[in-house]
Design brief:
Number of domains: 2
CATH superfamily of the largest domain: Vaccinia Virus protein VP39
Distance between the termini: 65 Å
Mean pLDDT: 90
Radius of gyration: 21 Å
Number of helices: 14
Number of strands: 9
Order of helices and strands: HHHHHEEHHEHEHEHEHHHEHEE
Strand order of the largest sheet: 5-4-3-6-7-9-8
Largest sheet: 7 strands, mixed
CATH architecture of the largest domain: 3-Layer(aba) Sandwich
Structural class: alpha/beta
Shape: elongated
Helix content: 40-55%
CATH class of the largest domain: Alpha Beta
Oligomer: single chain
């Protein structure tokens, strides 16, 4: 194993920082050799079979071309949940884990206790599913699956425009044994999406495409060259396009006193909150991520839906 470790570091040292290479090494040895991190530390003299060495050499060559390791291995972990990933879906980010954690630990979600349904709009819901959640632009299904796993008796629906993404999300839901309803639809066609989903939702969440065109030069090659642009970039002429569509949809389908949660581009924080206010979302909170950037919005309106 010492030889493989030296090889990995030698081949990647000009492309990645040392701490990222160490992370690569741990993930590769776990995925290819089935070695836990503890065993990697304690058993450095372990001999690795030649066929597995060849697989590792191939992985390193792909990494040198800046292909994301998650796509190479076909898997990742999000909020301690195993997920299958491929180039049809974004690789889930730590910031999105923060969004999920915020939702799960929110007083709003905690108020939906399975044994007590005291909501003023309870007639809109199946009492066997106290909280109904919609994930818009689900991609790999990471948000929907994490919420389904960690919120008792949640009824989760997830939508995406990409059929390939829907298929990936369905596989991940099966992998994690989470009963989620997946629908292919385009949120930009608000009326059609509303017709496809006749129910109301207590909570709507979305991490839509939000990177601005002028930010492209600052992105790394592994993002630009491999991840799906349809899930990354907002239109150059209308950076808030998806947020406007989500807000319009929420106006129709968010149950009274329901909550809207969004992951946002910090460069657009004030313009998004202003847009929400103009659309009737009068109770909006901006929250920073761990790097100190305005990354999340929690919003609600006390206006009754028609």
């Amino acid at each position: 194993m010492k030889h493989i470790s030296s090889y990995i570091h030698q081949q990647l040292q000009t492309r990645f920082p040392p701490e990222e290479i160490r992370c690569f090494e741990r993930l590769i040895l776990t995925a290819i050799c089935g070695m836990t991190y503890e065993r990697q530390i304690c058993c450095k003299d372990t001999q690795i079979p030649q066929n597995k060495k060849k697989r590792i050499y191939t992985i390193i060559e792909r990494l040198k071309k800046m292909e994301p390791l998650q796509y190479i291995l076909g898997e990742t972990v999000f909020y301690s949940i195993p997920l299958k990933v491929n180039p049809s879906v974004l690789i889930p980010r730590p910031e999105t884990e923060e969004l999920v954690d915020t939702i799960i630990k929110s007083d709003f979600v905690k108020s939906f206790h399975p044994a007590a349904d005291n909501r003023t709009f309870s007639q809109l819901h199946d009492t066997s599913a106290p909280i109904r959640i919609l994930d818009i632009g689900t991609g790999s299904g990471c948000i929907a699956i994490a919420l389904s796993r960690h919120i008792p008796n949640a009824y989760v629906t997830a939508i995406d425009i990409s059929l390939k993404a829907i298929h990936t999300a369905q596989k991940n839901a099966q992998l994690n044994q989470t009963p989620i309803k997946f629908i292919q639809t385009d949120i930009l066609n608000t009326q059609k999406s509303a017709q496809q989903l006749p129910e109301y939702f207590d909570l709507i969440v979305s991490n839509p495409p939000y990177i601005k065109a002028e930010e492209k030069p600052s992105l790394s090659a592994n993002v630009i060259n491999y991840e799906p642009h349809i899930a990354l970039f907002a239109p150059a002429d209308d950076p808030l396009l998806y947020y406007k569509a989500i807000a319009d949809y929420a106006q129709q389908k968010l149950a009274p006193t329901g909550m809207l949660y969004l992951e946002i581009n910090p460069l657009c924080d004030l313009s998004i909150t202003d847009m929400l206010y103009k659309k009737g979302f009068t109770h909006t909170t901006l929250t920073r991520d761990l790097s100190g950037k305005n990354r999340f919005i929690a919003s609600k309106t006390l206006h009754l839906n028609p």
